[in-house]
Automatic annotation (TrEMBL):
The lineage of its organism: Bacteria, Pseudomonadati, Bacteroidota, Saprospiria, Saprospirales. Signal peptide: none annotated. PROSITE patterns: PGM_PMM. It is an enzyme of class 5 (isomerase). Transmembrane segments: none annotated. This is Phosphoglucosamine mutase. Gene3D superfamilies: Alpha-D-Glucose-1,6-Bisphosphate, subunit A, domain 3 (3.40.120.10), Alpha-D-phosphohexomutase, C-terminal domain (3.30.310.50). One of its GO terms (biological process) is UDP-N-acetylglucosamine biosynthetic process. One of its GO terms (cellular component) is cytosol.
Length: 459
């Protein structure tokens, strides 16, 4: 059982002993600290809350809402919703903050509270550290009985979210409808079952849903990885669909299946959408250091400049603003469209990609064939208490000093035909080793090169 407090929020497994798991006591403690921090900032005393379809979601929602109201903060409760919808609702409501109740791709026993600022973006590292300090010290004052907050229930925001997506210059609902596209979507028994049908109807798609009851009883591991998408691949072919679509429980990550049942590749979700946007609006792009090099290749092919950020959505967003990027995101299927909002948004990604298919007249396999073929491996270096990670990374930096490298987040070495990225895990005693090459064997060779160099330094 697990409880993890970090600068972006609090997450853990439901049940068990308080302080070791995500129990009602821990939920109230974290929410109270967040609400108290919000009041100290002088922000609007209003918080938007939304949750994914997890079994524990309603209980966590009720505890968080009651705690905020006890602080004198009004709550706009979206109920069952998506992470990007909550993010957009924060600004639409002119709220001081938002809370998304979701453990993203984690299994059903997990849940989390993710904290948003008044822009509907994840709170910064500095704000997260201030929040953790309040949680640790527990010096919180609650409102008097005449000043308690109220709650407003509003389930209209998914419709508003979709309406805003349809207004994007990169989305053409008529073109999608005229193309008579058929899709199969895996809703993973969560918020996708609520958000995807109205999106498909608005786009004029014929659609079929898998795992469409939003009861939180995930039909398979909820992370949209190849091993978990076999049923979607089979049904895409059986239904003679043009595209298979997989989202995670809170609908911010997106993966596609081609018409022949092959995987488009989660890393290529952002690449394809960036390609389509750059065709119309040349500019810069951003992804994190552990994302595929294909985005850089596509960006430079359109005359733009590619920038890499540290891993984490908040870091990607900061770099996108700095670089004035027209599109960005993460290689895990996270697409961030600045003209909509600065957050990963699977609904926006779906609408843009279907428009791309409709206007190009190409099948998903044909679109995928446009891009350089890269393969990624994810490996690790096991740590012991005796290993000084910072010293090890500095040693590796020195060892590979003749190569192009970055130290903004661990150590990334860019070789001519691939790369390797090493980062210390926040949850396990390991260094994560991600590598990419033109073949699976080449990618593994880059990872092995890093591991062997590390072993030599530790010998």
């Amino acid at each position: 059982m697990t409880l993890i407090k970090s600068i972006s929020g609090i997450r853990g497994t439901i049940g068990g002993r308080a302080g070791d798991n995500l129990t009602p006591q821990d939920i109230v403690e974290a929410t109270a600290a967040f609400g108290y921090w919000l009041l100290q900032q002088g922000a609007a005393p209003k918080v938007v809350i939304g949750r994914d379809g997890r079994i524990s979601g309603a209980i966590v929602n009720e505890l968080a809402s009651a705690t905020l109201r006890g602080l004198g903060i009004d709550v706009v409760d979206l109920g069952l919703s998506t992470t990007p919808t909550v993010e957009m609702a924060v600004t639409m409501e002119k709220a001081g903050a938002g809370i998304v109740i979701t453990a993203s791709h984690n299994p059903k026993e997990w849940n989390a509270l993710k904290f948003l600022n008044s822009k509907g973006e994840f709170i910064s590292q500095a704000d997260g550290e201030a929040l953790l300090d309040i949680i640790a010290n527990g010096q919180i004052e609650y409102a008097m009985v005449g000043d308690l907050g109220k709650v407003i229930y509003d389930d209209r925001y998914i419709a508003r979210h979709i309406e805003a997506i349809l207004q994007l210059p990169f989305v053409d609902a008529k073109a999608v409808q005229d193309a008579k596209l058929r899709v199969v979507a895996d809703c993973i028994n969560s918020s996708g079952a609520v958000a995807l049908p109205p999106l498909f109807k608005a786009l004029g798609c014929e659609f079929e849903l898998l795992n469409k009851k939003p009861n939180g009883r995930f039909a398979h591991n909820p992370e949209p990885l190849p091993a978990h998408l076999k049923a979607l691949c089979q049904e895409t072919v059986s239904a003679r669909a043009h595209l298979g679509i997989a989202v995670d429980p809170d609908v911010d990550r997106l993966a596609f299946v081609c018409e022949d049942g092959s995987l488009f590749g989660e890393e290529y979700t952002l690449v394809a959408i960036a390609d389509y946007i750059l065709q119309q609006t040349p500019g810069n792009t951003v992804s994190n250091l552990s994302s595929t090099r294909a985005l850089r290749d596509v960006t430079e092919g359109h005359g733009g400049q590619y920038f890499a950020s540290a891993v984490g959505e908040v870091n990607v967003v900061a770099k996108m603003k700095e670089a004035n990027a027209v599109i960005g995101g993460e290689g895990n299927g996270g697409v961030i469209v600045p003209g909509l909002h600065y957050g990963r948004d699977a609904l926006a990604g779906i609408a843009i990609f279907l428009t791309f298919m409709a206007k190009s007249g190409e099948k998903a396999t044909q679109i995928k064939a446009r891009y350089p073929e890269y393969h990624m491996v994810k490996d690790r270096i096991q740590l012991t208490p005796a290993i000084d990670v910072d010293q090890l990374l500095k040693g590796l930096e020195s060892h590979f000093k003749e190569e192009d490298y970055s130290t903004i987040d661990g150590l990334k070495i860019d070789f001519e035909k691939g790369w390797a990225h090493l980062r210390k895990s926040n949850t396990e005693p390991i260094i994560r080793v991600y590598a990419e090459g033109e073949t699976p064997e080449a990618a593994q060779a880059f990872a092995d090169q890093m591991k062997n160099a590390a072993a030599a330094l530790l010998a």
